[in-house]
Task: structure prediction
Amino acid sequence: MKEKMGSKRKRMKRRKFLKYSGVGIGLMLGATWLGRNPLRRAVFDLGETMLPPYVGNTSPLVWLQVSQKNEIILHSSKVEMGQGTFTSLAQLAAEELEIGFDKIKVVHAASISGNVDGFSTGGSTSIATLWNPMREMAATMREMLKAKAAEKLGIDIADLSVTKDCKISSGTKEISFGEIVEGVADWYIPETPVLKDASKFQYIGKPLARVDLNDKVFGAPIFGMDASYPDMLYASVLRSQLVDAKMSNFDFSEAENMPGVVKIVSENGFVGVVAKSQIEAEAARQKIKFDYKVNKDWSLADVEKAITVGNGTKTVFQKVGKAIDEKDKKSELVRMEFRSPIGAHAQIEPSGAVANYKDGKVEIKISTQVVNITRKEVAKALGISKEDVNIIPTFLGGGFGRRLHTPNAIEAAIMSRAVGKPVKSFFSRKQEFQNDTFRPPSHHVMQARLSDKGEILALEHSIAGGDTAFNSALVPFSIVKPIIRADIGSIRGGAINYDGIPNHRGTYYHVDLPFATSFWRSLGLLSNAFAIESFMDELAIKTKQDPIQMRLNYIKDENPYHARLKKVISTCAEKAGYTDEVVNGRAMGFAATIDAGTPCAQVVEVSIVDNEIKVHKVTAVMDCGLAVNPDQVKAQVEGCICMGISAAMFEKMDLRDNMLHPTIYGPYEMALMRDSPKEIDVHLIQGVDVPMPVGEPPLGPIGAAIGNAVRRLTGRRLVEMPLSLG
Amino acid sequence: MKVFFKINGLDQSVEIQDGNTPLLWIIRDMLNLKGTKFGCGKAACGACTIHVDGEAVRSCSYSIKSIDGKEVTTIEGLGTEENPHPVQQAWIEHVVPQCGYCQPGFMMATAALLKKIPNPTDEDINDNIVNVCRCATYYRMRKAIHRAAEINSIPSNLKVQK
Result:
C-alpha cells in the first residue's frame, strides 16, 4: 500500500489557507443596502447573492492521495448526488496537478479521514466555493511532489515537469508519483503557487464526460441502498402515519412472533423491527399494535388557512422607499394572490443507512448531504465521541435537500448496537411520502401601485410559509429566530430585483405547521418567482407594455448582479425569438430570476391539448460565471427545467384526517417522459470569471414562464401551483 | 420451494420458503446483484425493471416462483464496459445519468422497447418509457433512445468498438 499523504503530519510546516467566498467582497457589498437599512435586512440582501466560504479542511494532505496504480485519488468532502461535483473537482485538480484527467479517481471522503465538510453539500455552492481551494491544493501538491522528486533524482526542481501519466520528468530521467511518496514521512508544504491563467486551461471549461458515468451506466453498487456488511440484518422503523399525533401503548406480541424477526428495538424514542430480511422486517413492523393520540385535527384546508399572509411572525426582509398605503386613492392599486402546494422530495432512493456498531465504535454507510451533522448526531445519540463514529458517504440516489436530515443514521446505529450485528434500515416508499421533510406550502400577496401613465410606482411581495431552513440541523431555530426572524430558505428568490421601481419591499410571515417541512431543491425560489414573475407579466399586460422591455426598464445597471440579470433577460428573449403573439396555437411565456447570485431567464412555448397544458420548448439563458463543465451545467439546467415542470404542473400533497396523501408515485403525479419538452435550448453567459451556483437557479423561472404563456393563450391567469386549467 | 432459472446467462437455483417473495429482493439481497434498484415496491416507478424472457418487468412486484424455467437479465447482464449494449453506448454518448439511481431501470425498459419497436417514434417513447427519474433527465434520455435505435440499425460488422 502506498502511503497516504497525510498519515504523518508532525513536522510539516503549517500554513493557513485563505477562506474564499467566490466573488470579491466589494462586489457583494455593492449589491446591498448595507448602512442604509437595519443589519437584518443587510443579511437578507447578502443572502440573495453571497456565497458562503468553504468551511472545512483545505490541506492537500487530506484531499489528495497517490494510489497504488500511480493515480490520484481525490477524497471529496462534497457528496455526489447527480449535480456533477465530482467531475468538476477532478477537472480543477487535474488542471493544477498537470496530469491527465483520466488519472484522477474521485471518492467520497470518509469522516474518519478528517476531510469533513463543516456545513453541507447543498445550496448549489460546491464548485463555486471550492474553485480556489481545490486548485490551490492541487497546485501545492504538485510542488510538493516536484520538490521531493528533485531530492530523490538529484535534479534541480526548475528542470522538472509533471507528465500526464503521473510522473515527474527532467526529459531524460523520470520518477512516478508512487515512487516519490514511497517512504516519505514528512511533507513540507510550500507557499501556494500562483494558479494557472485562464488562457492556459486544459480541462476547466471543457465538456468532459462525468467521472461516474461508467459506474452509473453499468449498474455498479455505489448507492447507500447498495451498501452491505457480512452477516447484516435488516430493519424497518415504525413511523407515524398521522401528523400532529403521538404513538403510544405499543403491543409487540404479534410482531415478535413473525418469521425472521430477531429483535424489536424500542429506544431513543423510536421503535424498529430487526429481522433477517427486508421483507420480514417490514411485514413484522406492520403487526405492531399501538394507539394514536391526536393533538389536533388537520385537513389541507386548515393548513391553507394557517398559511395565509397576515398570520404568523412578520418580518420585513426588503425595504426600499415607502410602503403601499391601501387606503390611498390617488393611484391604482393592483393586487393578486398566489399559492404553492406541499411538495414531496420523491427522490427514488429512499432514506436509510447501513450501520455497523462494534466495541463502542460505529461505521455508517449512508447517502447524506450533511456528513458532519450525521456524525455529530449519531455520536450524541449513542453517547460516544464523534471520533468513534465513521460516516462513509455513498453516492446519493438523489438529494434535493431530503438528505440534509438523517435521523435514519441514528436509528440504524442504535439498532446495530442493540442486536450486535450490522443493520440496514430504510424507509418504505409509503413512509418516504408520509414522513418526508416537505417543501412547505406558501401563500403570496403581490401588490403594485400604477400611475395613470402605467408606471409602476410601488411593488410589494408578501409571503407566508412554513419552515424551510428553520428547524433544520443546519439552521437551528432557537439560535437564529431571534436574530433574523425570517426563514432565509423561504425568502430565497423572494426579493424584488426591479430596483428601478422607487418603492418596493418584501415581507415574510413565518407559520408553524404540524408536519416537518424543510429544504427542497431551490427552497422558496420556485414559488416566490411564480408569484413575482406572474405578477410582473400581468402588470405588463395591464399597462400594454412588452413584458421583456418592461422588466429591463425597471432594473438599474448600478448593481452588478442586476446588470447580469438584464443581459440574461435580453439574451433569452432574443435567442427564443420572444413574441407576445399566439402562433399556430402556441404561445410563449417569459420569466427571469436571480438565485444565489446566478441569474437565469427562460422562455417556454406552450399549447393547450385537450384542456391540458403542453410544454413544447424551453429556451434558457443563465449566467453562472465560469462553467467548469459546460455540458454538466447544461444537464443541470435541463434537469431543473423538467423537475420544475413536474413541481409546477403536477405535484401536490393532500392532507385529510391528519394523514398525508398520496403515498406512491403515480397518484403523486409527476412529469414523466411524455410531459418533458422535446426541445431545451440552453445558452450560458460568462458574466464573471469565477464559477457561480448552478444546481438550483434554473428552477426559478419555469413555473411563472408556463403560467405567463397560458395567460397569453387562454386569457386566464393561473395563480395556483400545480398549474391546471381544471 | 426450489426455483430454477437463468440469470445473465448463468444457471441459478434458489431455495425459498415463500414463493411469492418479490424477485427484486432475491436479485439484490440473495444474488448480490445491486444494479437493479428498489424505488417503491409497488411497480410504480420502474427503478427495478429487468427482463424476463426478453420482456421488461418490474421485479419488485414479480414473484420468484413465476420465473421458474425462465431467463432473467439484469443491468449487469445487459452489456459490459468493453462491450456495451447499444442502449448503454447511447447513454454514455449523451451523458444521460445525473444521480444515476433510476438509470438501470430506464436502460432495461429501453432495451426491451427497442426489441419490440426497433425505431421508436417520440410517441412510442412517451407511451412505453414511463419510469420515474427525479433528476428529470428525460430530455437526454429521449435523445439517447433515438441514438440507441440508430446504433442498433448499424450492421454489427461496421460498428466502431469503443
Observations:
- The helical segments of chain B are 23-30, 75-78, 86-93, 103-116, 122-128, 138-153.
- The two ends of chain B are 44 Å apart (CA to CA).
